[in-house]
């Protein structure tokens, strides 16, 4: 092979191929946005963007599509699951990093990682056959009968105690994002230099004071970006929620009763969508979900970036 | 604050952390326990070697779903690896390339997008032009999920390779591409494979994007241009079905899936350490 071919052309060619394939990744990302926007255009054109997003009726039979019920369902389940999951996740991460060592630490860390990788359908299966009967018989029915006897005003808020509905879906969702949030928080806590802790101990601080005054402030940005990423995960979580939430788009939602989220609505109705408008409305719901996920992810990315520049600064 | 109160508070918070950890670990342990106990009974010879029985009848197995999972996931991993590794090389080995900031942002954001959206994209881009559901469209959806994971791990691993290796190669008069292909990539092989396995484990468990791409197929097929079943998809369909025997098989599929992912993650961890 002539030298110039090997040296010059080889380098150019290799760089060109690499850049081209990398452009493919960028193009795929752009394609996601474009496909969902153009796929949902018919629905946006028919109802108007805000008319669609804030429309309170989703009725495939009458051809009336508003994304507000699933949007509300997504916001409720994600926010509730995140607030349920936050402190347990943080304490698990603290346990692994600060309170345990050796074999115990490795086992718990491995278990958490394993559960973060467990597929959503498996959580859903467990939810249907284990959690739903449990929640129905030991949480919903007692509460419901109590409310029926003592506070009938609560009944419309509680809804039918069937076990399948908002409450079960939220519980499983919380359970699912705990390992994920915990693993991310752990990564952030592990980045805190040992010297910081030692300095604090040298001043006579107790373990909790070290955690409270040094470890958590230092890892704060990492913990919060982990929380935001866990939120993004909860927003888009599909299978477990679809299997447990009961898939009803009729407002108002009740605590125990069926509801739906954007992801569950798409999973549930997409293969049954008959006419173009229904299909387009479902893709439009996907576009709205994309917008929300994009915003949450950009916030998390921005926080992580900031962390890598100004670690530990107040 | 006096010393006793500080100690008390320390103990109290320690107790709370322990409690919080237990609150997390107990239900998670129960999930693994149920998957194992319920699933082990369903895993028999028939489960691995037979196509499913007609609805409502006893027996039948998961052969088409197992084969479908293997084909769809391998195909997805192949597509994702080609793009992902190249993008990782660009980020790590050409740090000044103008495309990099965009590429990094894009892959960070893509990693957090809901999996079901990838299914919608594959539906519009592959299923609609083809006119029917197919295993290939499922692979495209899964590849979109895998790519950002591969990009990130590849970049991370390549950056860990000592700069001296590159310098040594360049000093020998080797061109850039030769240094990357023959020196840097082989040195990083273990880490890249780890990334591929993590991506595979992530994609193999997804059912959401496959509902309207791979769609499911009760008959055994090796042709990715036809609709295909995969384990997570079958698990979902069986779990929400009214048949007792299908529920049993769903637990079996859950155990198989969990075991496969456990093994992949374990191998990936070990490869990462070495």
Walk me through the topology:
The complex is a heterodimer of chains A (314) and B (274).
Chain A: H1 3-39, H2 41-47, H3 49-54, E1 58-59, E2 64-65, H4 68-99, H5 102-117, H6 120-150, H7 155-158, H8 166-190, H9 194-202, H10 207-236, H11 239-244, H12 262-269, H13 276-309
Antiparallel strand pairs in A: 1-2
Helix pairs in contact in A: 1-13, 2-13, 4-5, 4-8, 4-10, 4-12, 5-8, 6-8, 8-10, 9-10, 10-13, 12-13
Chain B: H1 3-40, H2 45-49, H3 63-93, H4 100-111, H5 115-130, H6 135-160, H7 163-171, H8 176-187, H9 189-204, H10 231-239, H11 244-273
Helix pairs in contact in B: 1-11, 3-6, 3-9, 3-10, 4-6, 5-6, 6-9, 7-8, 9-11, 10-11
Radius of gyration computed on alpha carbons of chain B = 23 Å
Mean pLDDT of chain B: 89
What would the CATH topology of the largest domain in chain B be? MetI-like fold
The largest sheet of chain A has its strands arranged as: 1-2
Helix share bin of chain B? over 70%
- Compute the average pLDDT of chain A: 86
Classify the oligomer.
heterodimer
Distance between the termini of chain B: 48 Å
The CATH class designation of the largest domain in chain B is Mainly Alpha
CATH superfamily of the largest domain in chain B: MetI-like
CATH topology of chain A: MetI-like fold
What portion of the residues of chain B fall into strands of 2 or more residues? Answer: under 5%
Category by helix and strand content of chain A: mainly alpha
Classify the helix fraction of chain A into a percent range.
over 70%
């Amino acid at each position: 092979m002539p030298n110039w071919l090997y040296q010059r052309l080889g380098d150019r060619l290799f760089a060109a191929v690499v850049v081209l394939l990398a452009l493919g990744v960028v193009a795929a990302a752009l394609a996601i946005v474009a496909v969902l926007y153009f796929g949902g255009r018919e629905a946006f054109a028919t109802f108007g963007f805000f008319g669609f997003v804030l429309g309170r009726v989703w009725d495939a039979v009458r051809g009336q599509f508003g994304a507000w019920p699933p949007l509300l369902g997504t916001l409720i389940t994600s926010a509730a699951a995140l607030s349920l999951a936050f402190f347990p996740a943080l304490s698990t991460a603290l346990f692994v990093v600060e309170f345990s060592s050796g074999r115990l630490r490795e086992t718990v860390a491995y278990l958490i990682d394993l559960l973060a990788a467990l597929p959503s359908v498996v959580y859903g299966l467990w939810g249907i056959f284990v959690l739903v009967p449990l929640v129905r018989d030991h949480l919903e029915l007692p509460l419901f009968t109590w409310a029926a006897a003592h506070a009938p005003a609560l009944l419309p808020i509680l809804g039918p105690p069937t076990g399948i509905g908002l409450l079960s879906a939220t519980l499983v969702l919380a359970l699912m994002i705990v390992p994920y949030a915990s693993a991310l928080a752990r990564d952030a806590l592990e980045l805190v230099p040992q010297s910081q802790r030692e300095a604090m101990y040298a001043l006579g601080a107790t373990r909790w004071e070290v955690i409270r005054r040094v470890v958590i402030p230092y890892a704060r940005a990492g913990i919060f970006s982990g929380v935001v990423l866990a939120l993004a995960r909860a927003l888009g979580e599909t299978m477990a929620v679809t299997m447990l939430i009961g898939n009803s788009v009729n407002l108002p939602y009740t605590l125990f009763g069926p509801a739906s989220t954007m992801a569950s609505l798409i999973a549930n109705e997409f293969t049954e969508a008959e006419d173009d408008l229904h299909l387009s409305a479902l893709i439009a719901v996907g576009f709205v979900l994309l917008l929300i996920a994009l915003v949450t992810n950009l916030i998390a990315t921005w926080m992580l970036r900031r962390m890598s520049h100004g670690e530990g600064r107040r | 604050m006096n010393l006793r109160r500080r100690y008390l508070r320390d103990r109290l918070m320690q107790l709370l952390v322990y409690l919080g950890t237990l609150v997390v670990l107990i239900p998670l342990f129960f999930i693994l326990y149920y998957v194992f106990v319920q699933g082990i009974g369903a895993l028999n010879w028939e489960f691995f070697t037979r196509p499913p029985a007609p609805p409502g009848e006893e027996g039948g197995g998961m052969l088409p779903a197992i084969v479908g999972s293997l084909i769809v996931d391998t195909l997805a991993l192949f597509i994702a690896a080609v793009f992902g590794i190249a993008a990782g090389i660009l980020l790590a080995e050409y740090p000044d390339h103008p495309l990099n900031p965009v590429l990094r942002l894009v892959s960070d954001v893509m990693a957090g997008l809901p999996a079901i959206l990838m299914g919608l994209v594959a539906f519009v881009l592959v299923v609609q032009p083809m006119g029917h559901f197919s295993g290939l469209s499922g692979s495209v959806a899964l590849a979109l999920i895998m790519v950002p994971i591969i990009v990130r791990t590849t970049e991370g691993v390549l950056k860990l390779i000592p700069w001296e290796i590159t310098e040594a190669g360049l000093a020998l008069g080797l061109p850039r591409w030769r240094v990357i292909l023959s020196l840097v990539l082989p040195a990083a092989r273990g880490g890249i494979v780890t990334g591929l396995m993590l991506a595979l484990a992530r994609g193999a468990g997804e059912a959401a994007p496959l509902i309207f791409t791979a769609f499911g197929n009760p008959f055994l097929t090796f042709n990715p241009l036809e609709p295909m079943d995969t384990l997570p998809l079958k698990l979902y369909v069986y779990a929400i079905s009214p048949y007792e025997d299908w529920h049993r098989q769903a637990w079996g599929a859950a155990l198989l899936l969990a075991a496969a992912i456990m093994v992949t993650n374990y191998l990936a961890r070990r490869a990462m350490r070495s």
